[in-house]
């Protein structure tokens, strides 16, 4: 039994379980008291209307701790998003298109006054006001140390690195947790954008627990486009989606790959081939 | 599907009827428009909250259906939501849409100049020279609404032409915010939470009336009241019925339901043509309204009813923090400030307090007052 439990634990991605968040010990700074805790029901008290968006990414709790030093202020917000995929998702959707990412936690970016990173199931936002008043203080260094305490070995979610590297638009890989492309039956998806032949093409991967779920999803999509649906088989399909334009789909096992934004399907087939090989 | 198959709808040549323009006008006439107070802006009663739309195709579909007012904020997706709005609307004539965004000063506050810098960032992301409505985001008290730094920034934004109109958004203490907005003589629009749970909130209704009479545009949000009726989140609110309820009040000029999929868009847009609740929707909402729920509306009608003069609204709020928000530390600190015994109802054989929302006041007080006995370090 112990062996089985151990094996099950090994199957879980690193840092996917909840743990007590221990805020960093910052000797030069004076703590402003116990961290504030927000949950699903009162998150809006802290971030207003944006709360709805965080909730859609599996938000569970937020802890906010603050410090001060000689007029400088430091605030750390730790958002727990239940698992590394959803944490990466909310981080990715908020990441600026021009962000220069650094290996802090899984990944992070920022400057002297703000630093955001993702580590395991946590999305962390650090902000400092007048940090120059504190000698030798570096927000990035503090972020590195804190990230390590949250998750020692963060890993990219399974499908995030699956897209081709060539021609990809930086910082465009995003996890959409539900209603992908505005269609409820598609559920969640990972997408990344590419610049090819002057076009902005979006590639995506949808993973289901088994192939029958994919079959149902494809059937629903076909009938959504107004075409009488036949029992589909694995392979390629082009649909004229009334709202999303021409969509190229490739069904492989429990995955549905796809592309939008192209004019010639020859552009996207080799890209989907590359992704399919990795599945 | 072994080989690539094209199963989509083939484009078909459709003859253009001569009376197309007439049909279009006729179709337009069916949509209900209201005017946003003294701004003079006429909008369909259904607008769109863009926040959770994951791609510009939803914006495109909404625009093509006839939605004209789109609401975003600088804080949504760290500005990327504004980018998406800008990306889609850059090809649409600017005077065909009403775009609003919001700026939220950090808790430390910000100067007038910093506020205006934020506006410049938003305009850059939106790829626009101006927004139609610029909101100070999330007001919940009078001091914030009337903060001279922000009023100055809003005035300057208008003077410079970067905002045609200015407003305040609120989902807490809305009546106070509405009144403060009227008092300021600066705001043109208020974006406020408004839903069926507020049906008996006379204070709110009066504040809406005062704002309307003062010529403010009033835009509703959160019409679904959180989306669920119960704490287990198993009883969803009918979004169409809830939207119709909000718009049945003529003081609400338009609503901005968050639209995340094409199905929802279709449902919401139907309301723009008919906001009359049908029999089924009425009974659904009736049921929803009769759900006692966890939320004290703060109507204050219990004040003065208790022979022990207990501060009932504060105690009901504490109960809501504990059971509604799962925030016992906040519940305890609220109860502690009231300086009551752990069983303040023990001297009464029964309870004479009547709550219009059907709360069993004695039961809730007896339950929540004990929280003061729990050591603080057990609570979060």
The helix-strand sequence of chain A is HEEHHEEHEEEHEEEHEEEH
Largest sheet of chain A: 7 strands, antiparallel
**Fraction of residues of chain B in helices?**
25-40%
Low-confidence stretches of chain B: 1-18
How would you write the strand order of the largest sheet of chain B? Answer: 3-4-5-6-7-8-9-10
Looking at CATH, which topology of the largest domain in chain B would you report?
TIM Barrel
| Overall geometry of chain A | elongated
Query: How many strand elements of chain A?
Result: 13
Summarize the largest interface: chains and residue counts: A-B, 52 and 51 residues
Q: Low-confidence stretches of chain A at least 5 residues in length (pLDDT < 50)?
A: 5-12
In whole angstroms, the N-to-C terminal distance of chain B is 55 Å
The portion of residues forming beta strands of chain B comes to 5-15%
Percent helix of chain A: 25-40%
Helix run count of chain B: 14
Instruction: Please count the beta strands of chain B (DSSP E, at least 2 residues each).
Output: 10
Average predicted local confidence, pLDDT of chain B = 85
Q: What is the typical, i.e. mean, pLDDT of chain A?
A: 91
CA-atom Rg of chain A in angstroms: 21 Å
> How large is the radius of gyration of chain B?
24 Å
């Amino acid at each position: 039994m112990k062996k089985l439990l151990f094996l099950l634990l090994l199957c879980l991605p690193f840092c996917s379980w909840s743990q007590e968040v221990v805020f960093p010990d910052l000797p030069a700074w004076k703590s402003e008291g116990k961290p504030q805790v927000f949950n699903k029901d009162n998150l809006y008290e802290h971030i207003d209307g944006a709360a709805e968006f965080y909730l859609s990414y599996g938000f569970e709790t937020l802890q906010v701790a603050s410090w001060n030093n000689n007029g400088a202020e430091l605030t750390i917000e730790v958002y727990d998003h239940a698992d590394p995929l959803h944490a990466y998702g909310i981080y990715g959707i908020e990441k600026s298109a021009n962000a220069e990412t650094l290996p802090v936690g899984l990944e992070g970016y920022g400057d002297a006054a703000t630093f955001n990173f993702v580590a395991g199931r946590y999305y962390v936002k650090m902000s400092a006001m007048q940090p120059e008043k504190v000698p030798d203080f570096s927000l990035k260094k503090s972020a590195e140390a804190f990230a390590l305490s949250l998750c020692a070995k963060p890993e990219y979610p399974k499908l995030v690195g699956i897209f081709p590297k060539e021609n990809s638009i930086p910082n465009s890989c995003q996890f959409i947790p539900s209603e992908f492309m505005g269609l409820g039956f598609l559920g969640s998806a990972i997408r990344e954008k590419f610049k090819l032949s002057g076009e902005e093409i979006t590639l995506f991967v949808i993973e289901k627990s088994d192939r029958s779920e994919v079959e149902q999803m494809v059937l629903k999509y076909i009938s959504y486009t107004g075409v009488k649906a036949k029992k589909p088989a694995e392979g390629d399909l082009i649909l004229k989606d009334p709202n999303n334009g021409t969509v190229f789909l490739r069904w492989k096992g429990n995955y549905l790959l796809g592309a939008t934004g192209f004019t010639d399907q020859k552009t996207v087939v080799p890209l989907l081939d590359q992704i399919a090989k990795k599945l | 599907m072994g080989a690539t198959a094209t199963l989509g709808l083939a484009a078909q040549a459709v003859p253009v009827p001569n009376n197309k323009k007439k049909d279009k006008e006729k179709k337009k006439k069916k949509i209900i428009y209201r005017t946003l107070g003294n701004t003079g802006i006429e909008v369909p009663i259904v607008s769109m909250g863009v926040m959770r739309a994951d791609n510009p195709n939803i914006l495109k579909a909404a625009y093509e259906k006839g939605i004209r007012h789109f609401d975003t904020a600088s804080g949504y997706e760290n500005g990327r939501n504004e980018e998406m709005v800008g990306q889609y609307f850059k090809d649409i004539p600017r005077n065909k849409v009403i775009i609003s965004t919001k700026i939220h000063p950090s808790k430390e506050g910000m100067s007038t100049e910093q506020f205006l810098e934020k506006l410049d960032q938003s305009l850059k992301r939106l790829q626009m020279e101006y927004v139609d409505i610029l909101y100070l985001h999330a007001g919940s008290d009078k001091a914030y609404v009337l903060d001279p730094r922000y009023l100055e920034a809003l005035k300057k934004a208008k003077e410079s032409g970067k905002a045609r109109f200015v407003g305040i958004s609120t989902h807490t203490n809305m009546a106070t915010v509405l009144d403060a907005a009227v008092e300021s003589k600066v705001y043109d629009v208020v974006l406020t939470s408004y839903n069926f749970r507020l049906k008996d909130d006379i204070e709110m209704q009066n504040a809406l009336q005062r704002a309307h009479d003062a010529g403010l545009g009033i835009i509703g949000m959160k019409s679904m009241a959180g989306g669920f009726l119960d704490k287990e989140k198993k009883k969803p609110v009918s979004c169409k019925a809830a939207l119709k309820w909000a718009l049945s009040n003529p003081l609400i000029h338009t609503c901005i339901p968050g639209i995340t999929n094409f199905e929802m868009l279709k449902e919401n847009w139907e309301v723009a043509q008919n906001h009359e609740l049908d029999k089924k929707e009425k009974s659904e909402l009736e049921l929803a309204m009769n759900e006692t729920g966890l939320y004290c509306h703060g109507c204050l009608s219990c004040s003065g009813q208790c022979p022990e003069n207990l501060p009932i609204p504060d105690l009901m709020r504490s109960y809501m923090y504990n059971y509604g928000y799962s925030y016992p530390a906040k519940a305890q600190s609220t109860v502690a400030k009231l300086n009551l015994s752990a069983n303040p109802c023990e001297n009464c054989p029964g309870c004479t307090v009547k709550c219009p929302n059907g709360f069993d006041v004695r039961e809730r007080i007896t339950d929540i007052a004990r929280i003061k006995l729990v050591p603080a370090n057990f609570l979060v």
